Amino acid sequence: MSMFREALQPFDKLPIYELLTEEGLEKIHQATMKVLQEGGIAFHDPEALKILKTNGAKVEGEMVYFGAEIIEEFVAKAPETFTQIARNPDRSVQIGGEAVTFAPVYGPPFAFDLENGRRSSTIQDFENFVKLAYLSPYIHHSGGTIVEPNDLPVNSRHLDMLLSHIVYSDKPFMGSVTSPQNAADSVEIVRRLFGAQAIQENPALLSLINVNSPRQFDETMLKALRVYAEARQAVIITPFIMAGSMAPITLAGALTQQNAEALAGIVYTQMVNPGAPVVYGSYLSTVDMKTGAPVFGSPESQVALYASAQIARYYKLPFRSGGTYTTSKLTDAQSAYEAMMTMIPTTLARVNFVLHAAGWLESGMTAGYEKFILDCDVLGMMQKFYKGIDLSEEEFGMDALFEVEPGGHYLGTDHTMRNFRTAFYQTDIMDYNDYTQWDMEGRKDSVQLANERVKDLLASYESPPLDEGKKDAVESFIARRKQELETN
Amino acid sequence: MSMFREALQPFDKLPIYELLTEEGLEKIHQATMKVLQEGGIAFHDPEALKILKTNGAKVEGEMVYFGAEIIEEFVAKAPETFTQIARNPDRSVQIGGEAVTFAPVYGPPFAFDLENGRRSSTIQDFENFVKLAYLSPYIHHSGGTIVEPNDLPVNSRHLDMLLSHIVYSDKPFMGSVTSPQNAADSVEIVRRLFGAQAIQENPALLSLINVNSPRQFDETMLKALRVYAEARQAVIITPFIMAGSMAPITLAGALTQQNAEALAGIVYTQMVNPGAPVVYGSYLSTVDMKTGAPVFGSPESQVALYASAQIARYYKLPFRSGGTYTTSKLTDAQSAYEAMMTMIPTTLARVNFVLHAAGWLESGMTAGYEKFILDCDVLGMMQKFYKGIDLSEEEFGMDALFEVEPGGHYLGTDHTMRNFRTAFYQTDIMDYNDYTQWDMEGRKDSVQLANERVKDLLASYESPPLDEGKKDAVESFIARRKQELETN
Fold first, then answer.
1. For the stretch B101-118, what's the b/e string if a residue is b when 16 or more beta carbons lie within 10 angstroms of its beta carbon?
2. Maximum distance among all alpha carbons in chain A?
3. How far is B423 from chain A (nearest CA, A)?
4. Which own/partner pairs from A403-406 qualify as long-range (CB within 8 Å, at least 24 positions apart)?
5. Quick check: B432 and A327 CB within 8 A?
6. Per-residue confidence (pLDDT) for residue A3, from 0 to 100
7. Residues of A whose CB is below 8 A from B288
8. Contact at CB, A249 and B424, closer than 8 angstroms
9. What residue segments make up the domains of chain B, in order of their start?
10. H or E element: which one contains A174?
11. Which of A410, B45, B109, B401 is spaced 20 to 30 Å from A222 by Cα?
């Protein structure tokens, strides 16, 4: 593993903020076991029901009931950490343990930039975001559907998105889950890119399987999950929880339901293919009781995030959650307050895979260019934060402490000279000018500064080198598949 | 203690985020003792030097050297917690232990609002901020110089500010430190307001004694400190640290210097009057190596905040730090990212007294009306966060979990009905509308919304009742002092 790669993905050696006591964790575990055993989870897929039954779960119609022993047995088969490979080996990421991976926003049908406002997103937006994610040293993963390319045919746009990730970035990426066939296409593409052997050893895809909460998995997700698990590609099982509408309004209840749903999916994954890489996901927001709308950045979801991370660790599973969520429609103060209300707990809870780490606006409906840039700078700060505090002799700087007289100045000391390059995080976008200088430079707010940065970055972008043979292998498959899809 | 008061000031029962190991704490303590013993601290006040010498410190010229035993002996005399009384007893606050107190920004010479932009602040601004702080349920303290009333004479404006705190609010407040005479005036005013006996038992003032870092206390601060400590009023000893210019550029060194300075001031306070209430303060920012300007919200100051809080707890002292700092000139996304970069660590480190908790802009040069409103909403979220997670039976909501079918909805359940009023924090200002509704309502950003809220709040303001006799006693003193100051 090269130095560069080490520098890229942070490893969190800091203490974790543990909000729950061990007794509290045990209580949530026991309540979860009761829900799994007596309440059950619906699996809307005959093949899944067959697999679950064969492996010892109790099946009645589409309802599946799990005893605590089955949960324990199959959860134990899932790896505690795994590596997702990237086409640039230096960009491969560890998922789980002390490793942290930041990935862009996923799923918005709209894009926003200062000049054009909010509009239906296109493949051009998609490519732009792949490029911006590639260029940021604080984004370790190219993500999946960063924005929907609405100008492309629905049935084949997954192919265009995958090609975009492969051509415009060399970071790892996610597979399609919109149909089992799209999942199979994703697997075939990484097989051609990495080779069949390589993707058996380590997954080249990490894909998002959402639970259709409360307590059900739909057929598309279950079939996509099976495609990935059979090919030993990684999946994230994420209950889609809005406490108060899709789960109990109280946190203990919402966490219990989330845990039951996540464990049911994880256990099913291990029944499909024992040892297949799987991530415990949490996407837990609250509901505005006035409008019924989801609320991001609430104090309750902060608490839930700490607790969810602890619960995932209790089962020794890699954990996905967090990001820079906001309900705001603009990259205004609200958007940043809310983003941090999730992002700092994300850091202190040691979330392993952070989807939606940059660019999220409007409850996930919009990918914001300027927000992306600002969020990335914050991710850089978080990455510096993980370094914690060094208590070596040099860091105490006793030579400087004794050299500088009372009322004196440290700027010129040898100690400052030795350390100034690395002491502080260097912002890419925050404005530290004093009022006069800021006034002279045009009184720009952070959105204007970020808008300028977007243009500079896209203008400076150069593709990472890609082996022509591999590129051809991927492109010829995509061409064939597009032809088949047009014919059908 | 009434329910209302309990509801007002939060008590943090959550785990604290402890960043340093015990070994790390011990290392910083040892380095601090070396600085105090061999490096020394300058006290620019002959009377202070006399007191320090009498009490066993080694004095050479204006330099004072402290052995570890003297530090230990006098730090132990300081109370671990104390109560600062307010003229409404329900608003009295505990300082220290699990108690948390939020106070407004302190010191800016400018005010900002959306209509008028940034301008020299006036007594009208001062009164407005006292009123806004009074009206917020999440501000527990009226603060001190919220903004400078630049339209009033310098030599008597401390009297106008104190009167403003007393008349327009019933929350506790801070005393003047701009001269020993102004400190004495502050004490006389609270003596008239509360009675001589009451302020001997519990302080009615909490005042800000800054260290003129590195390693020196100036004469004004030392004389003001003595006035307060002799009258048994509380002081906060705060080293003014910009790591890289006023302290070593590395955190271990900056924390060591801060600790030496804070302990020297605390020990001196206890020599002046053993048992006098005193708070360990930290105001530790970093420096932008490009411009030399202070940087707020850096990852390094987050780390330092956690460590500083631990160090204060090591000495069993109440701790002041944190707030909603920003270097931004506007209430834009940057201002909110940076505010949260300090405010969340402030919460998780259990800072006891949070000065600058609302309204801070432009590295403390400006008090922002809209920022104040938005910050207060975030303080409300933090206050809700302190409640943590309740793992009682009702909170698990097993009735609802079993009642709602897979794919069903929790909104109509009995459990939701029983809990919806208290389950979630109710925002005062964040916009949770969907895009269409937000568009229909005029596409307002958070600054516009906050600006409207400022006007509504100030229009709705009513003074808390104040005993006429006490008011007269304060006003007659102020009138006399103003006459004396005019004559001089």
1. bbbbbbbbebbbbeeeeb
2. 82
3. 6
4. A404/B214, A405/B215, A406/B41, A406/B42, A406/B63, A406/B214, A406/B215, A406/B216
5. yes
6. 36
7. 424, 432
8. yes
9. 6-17+75-385, 393-423
10. none
11. B401
Mutate to test the interface with B, among A240, A430, A437, A448 (most CBs of B within 10 A): A430
Tokens read off for A170: 């060399």
Q: What is the pTM of this model?
A: 0.97
Task: Order across the sheet with A360-361: list the strands.
Answer: A117-120, A110-113, A366-368, A360-361
Contact B384 A28 (CB under 8 A): no
Q: Would you tell me how many other CB atoms lie within 10 Å of the CB of residue A189?
A: 27
Does residue A64 sit in helix, strand or coil?
A: strand
User: For residue A118, what are the β-bridge partners?
Assistant: A112
Q: Measuring CA to CA, how many Å separate A361 from each of A105, A281, A327, B138, B435?
A: 9, 21, 7, 27, 11
Contact flag A287-B424 (C-beta cutoff 8 Å)? yes
Task: For residue B369, give the nearest of B260, B264, B457 by alpha carbon.
Answer: B457
CB contact under 8 A, B435 and A390: no
According to CATH, the superfamily of the domain at B6-17+75-385 is Trimethylamine methyltransferase-like (3.20.20.480)
Q: How far is CA A143 from CA A105, A211, A291, A319, A385, in A?
A: 7, 19, 31, 16, 23
Give Cα separations from B424 to A169, A343, B374, B390 (angstroms).
41, 20, 18, 13
- Per-residue pLDDT 10s for chain B (488 aa) are 333 344 489 999 999 999 999 999 999 999 999 999 999 999 999 999 999 999 999 999 999 999 999 999 999 999 999 999 999 999 999 999 999 999 999 999 999 999 999 999 999 999 999 999 999 999 999 999 999 999 999 999 999 999 999 999 999 999 999 999 999 999 999 999 999 999 999 999 999 999 999 999 999 999 999 999 999 999 999 999 999 999 999 999 999 999 999 999 999 999 999 999 999 999 999 999 888 899 999 999 999 999 999 999 999 999 999 999 999 999 999 999 999 999 999 999 999 999 999 999 999 999 999 999 999 999 999 999 999 999 999 999 999 999 999 999 999 999 999 999 999 999 989 999 999 999 999 999 999 999 999 999 999 999 999 999 999 999 999 999 999 998 86
pLDDT along chain A (488 residues), means of 10: 54 96 98 98 98 98 98 98 97 98 98 98 98 97 98 97 98 97 98 98 98 97 98 98 96 98 98 98 93 92 98 98 97 98 98 98 98 97 96 97 96 95 93 96 98 98 97 98 90
